[in-house]
Design brief:
There is one protein chain. The chain contains 5 helices and no strands. The protein has 104 residues and is an all-alpha fold. It has a domain of 32 residues. The chain is elongated and about 80 Å long.
Length: 104
């Protein structure tokens, strides 16, 4: 069983030795993991947008949407009649029992 080396031990190793160790590990790694690693490395090199800028962008996009097409908001919750609720309960009961009748 391989033991985990400490950071101090890795720091004592020479650069070529570290490169050899890394390449050995990479060769043993499956292609999917390598692709994911490559993607994450590339992604980490991209510049990060500060939170405030992203928040402002989202607000701008929302305002554009709001003015181009006004979306009406529902003032009250949808209410079902007693008959509709009973029908829903009956449907759920039949669905659980597996005895739903086919409509013609």
């Amino acid at each position: 069983m391989m033991k985990l080396m400490t950071m101090k031990q890795y720091m004592k190793m020479s650069k070529p030795a570290l490169i050899r160790k890394i390449t050995k590990t990479l060769r043993a790694m499956p292609k999917v993991k390598l692709a994911r690693l490559c993607y994450n490395i590339t992604k980490s090199k991209l510049p990060r947008l500060p939170y405030e800028q992203t928040k402002m962008k989202m607000l701008r996009r929302y305002k554009k949407l709001k003015f181009t097409e006004e979306i009406p908001k529902r003032k009250t919750k949808r209410k079902f009649s007693r008959k509709q609720l009973a029908a829903q309960r009956l449907f759920a009961k039949r669905a659980r029992a597996g005895t739903l009748r086919r409509r013609r």
